[in-house]
Design the sequence.
């Protein structure tokens, strides 16, 4: 997983996450939208229209003075915890 | 030629059941629907793989 | 912040299972489903060296057939990305070569099904070949896809709201999946998927239960259903951890 920041301000961040597809990006976007200081989050897997760019680009807008990169980190932690608790719940039933 | 190993649509391994299906429904006179049910080939994508298949090895082998 | 998930099995077998998950968002359910299909690696034959092939099919055709035979996949970490397992096959006609004729040099990697016909051999025809199996992902080739027909549906809540008018003809009401009736989980196959069989003369309302999904999971025999689901969850977890580490730098 390689990250490349394409645009960055205090409240807005566009970041390319190489090697990922809808499987992870959609879950990550969902987790970002659950974050209380994120006002907008979306991703675009950029089909061929954009000059050969095919890696997904994640765009985050925050409010309340939160650094978008921090929000991204929180979301990653959230996804990880979700995956772990899903696995634990599944193993408990199995 | 030979029966496809997996269902084109869902990827289930159907070749496993071909010989029994062929024996009972094509060579024998059992109802293909019942045979497929008993073999556990549930989905219609997998069922068509067996129902519509024709072995061609015997047909082409003289021309080798 | 962690959600409480609740998992309950509805049907369960070695290769096929249905289970209900409560408290899961549609996005996360889809992530798990996609991970089961594309991101859980399995063993499959990738390279074949033919010593002799005098059958009626070409080498390439047989190589494809051999590749599609599911092989049991050893536990995670047992095999690295570019380690291979060699399997050999040697059958002389008149006979049929089966997947069960494949001889593996590793006990952990064996054909999951024994009765898949590879090629029908006539008199004087022979198949002798050596094949290398590798671990790879479902997104690269369908032969590495461990999950078959993996999907989910909303759990549906059925409620009796009254009686049908006395002289009205009963109409069938088809639902598929699993319904919840007073906390009891009932697969619709039990009443031929028709609610009018289960509630004759009653008027019923059907509603999706929010954030409750019934997964249907089937595997090709590479591993058990439990293995597939836990590995899919692990794959999402490892990517989240990777992102977390990458962001911290």
Sequence:
């Amino acid at each position: 997983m390689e990250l490349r920041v394409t645009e960055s301000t205090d409240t807005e961040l566009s970041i390319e996450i190489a090697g990922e597809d809808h499987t992870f990006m959609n879950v990550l976007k969902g987790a970002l939208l659950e974050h209380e200081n994120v006002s907008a989050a979306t991703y675009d897997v950029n089909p061929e229209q954009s000059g050969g760019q095919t890696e997904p680009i994640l765009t985050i807008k925050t409010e309340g003075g939160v650094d978008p990169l921090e929000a991204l980190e929180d979301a990653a932690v959230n996804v990880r915890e979700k995956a772990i608790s899903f696995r634990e719940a599944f193993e408990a039933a199995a | 030629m030979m029966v496809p190993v997996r269902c084109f649509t869902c990827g289930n391994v159907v070749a496993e059941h071909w010989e029994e299906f062929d024996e009972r429904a094509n060579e024998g006179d059992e109802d293909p629907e019942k045979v497929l049910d008993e073999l556990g080939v549930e989905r219609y994508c997998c069922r068509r793989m067996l129902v519509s298949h024709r072995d061609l090895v015997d047909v082409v082998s003289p021309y080798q | 912040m962690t959600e409480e998930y609740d998992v309950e099995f509805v049907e369960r077998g070695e290769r096929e299972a249905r289970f209900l998950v409560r408290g899961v968002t549609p996005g996360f359910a889809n992530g798990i489903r996609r991970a089961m299909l594309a991101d859980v690696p399995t063993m499959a034959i990738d390279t074949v060296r033919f010593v002799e092939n005098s059958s009626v099919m070409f080498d390439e055709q047989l190589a494809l057939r051999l590749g599609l035979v599911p092989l049991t996949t050893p536990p995670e970490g047992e095999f690295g990305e570019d380690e291979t397992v060699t399997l050999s096959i040697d059958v002389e006609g008149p006979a049929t070569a089966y997947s069960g004729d494949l001889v593996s040099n590793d006990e952990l990697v064996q054909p999951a099904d024994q009765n898949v016909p590879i090629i029908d051999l006539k008199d004087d025809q022979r198949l002798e070949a050596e094949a290398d199996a590798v671990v790879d992902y479902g997104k690269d080739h369908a032969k590495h896809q461990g999950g078959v027909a993996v999907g989910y549906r909303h759990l549906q809540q059925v409620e009796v709201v009254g009686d049908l008018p006395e002289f009205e003809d009963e109409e069938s009401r088809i639902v598929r999946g699993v319904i919840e009736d007073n906390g009891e989980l009932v697969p619709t196959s039990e009443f031929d998927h028709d609610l009018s069989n289960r509630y004759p003369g009653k008027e019923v309302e059907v509603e999706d239960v929010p954030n409750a999904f019934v997964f249907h999971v089937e595997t090709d025999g590479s591993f058990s259903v439990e293995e597939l689901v836990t590995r899919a969850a692990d794959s999402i977890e490892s990517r989240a951890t990777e992102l977390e580490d990458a962001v911290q730098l």
